[in-house]
Structure formats: structure tokens, C-alpha cells
Amino acid sequence: MIITPRSPEYWRAFEFEHTAFRWEAHQVYEDEAIRAFLAREPKPAMPGKERWCARVREARAAGKITARVHGVREPLTDYLMYELTWSYPPNVAAGEDIRITSVFEGLPVRDFWLFDSATLLWLDYDAAGRLVSAELDDDPATVVRANHWRDAAMHAGVALEDYAREKLVA
Would you state the CATH architecture of domain 2-167? Predict the structure, then answer.
């Protein structure tokens, strides 16, 4: 079932009971703050980021787990440099488990969220990295595969802090 990104129906999927996992395969996503990052300006106010981190903190306080793995290709894009140094650290501070991997074998090229190991939400982006559609997928076989993808990505992933220490410090 196709749903409109950021609609009330979309956000209902985020009302999970135990776990929320995000697989990110793209190397560029739309984000207003990257302009300041690339211009070496101070970090601007990021209201969407603040709302997300509040959501993660609330979930964490309720004993829920929020995690993501971003599959990256090296050399890193400017966007990934921004994400790893500016965008992700507040998520981690809020309690999100963020890992990075360069392993793509067996993992989808399409982004998704997997909630409570049972609800699969595919995400589709345009060439500029703008989220253009989302699709709830209730096919049991696909949901089982998504659980496998999550487990494989989490296993292959390196904690953000460790990845940054190894790859971003010259």
C-alpha cells in the first residue's frame, strides 16, 4: 500500500512497540543543513532533527530500540561526510544505535524501515535524494527477508564512533 511520506498515515508506522530499524542504501539525501556544512558555517537550527531526536529519546525511555545501518561507498560523498559528522551524532546522543557498513552483498538497494520485525515500510527517493513515496509491504516472505537484511546489516555494521575514528581522522 502506497502512502504519502510524512503524512499522518506514514507517521503511524513509527508507533512501534519494541524495535525500529532503518536500512539506508543511498549516498545522498535531501537535507537543508548540508549547505552550511559545505560552506563551513555554523550548524543551523535543525527543527526536523530536534523532533527526531526527541522521538528517539522518548522511545529509549520507554525501553524501545531505534537502530539504523547506512551502507556507504568510499570515497564518501560530501553528503556522507556531513551525515557522519553533523547529522548522525545527535541521533546517537539521543539513544539511536547507528552503524556504518560498506558491505552491500545480499542487501537491498532500496531503503526501508522495519518496525517490530513485522511492519516493513519501503522508501523511494528521487535523484536529488528527496523522499517521494513510501510503501507498506505486508507480504510475509518479504518481511522475513527484511528481518534477515536487518540482522546481516547490523552484524556487518561498525558503530558510528568507531567508523568515524577510523575513516574520518587523518
Answer: 2-Layer Sandwich (3.30)
pTM (two decimals)? 0.95
Q: Where are the domains of the chain?
A: 2-167
Distances (CA, A) of 82 to 34, 46, 157, 168: 6, 14, 19, 11
C-alpha cell at 101: 557498513
90-119: pLDDT as tens digits: 999 999 999 999 989 999 999 999 999 999
**Set of cell numbers at residue 131:** 523522499
Grid-cell match 550548524, residue found: 43
Q: Is 97 in contact with 67 (CB distance < 8 Å)?
A: yes
Buried b (16+ CB within 10 A) or exposed e, 43-57: eeebeebeebbebbe
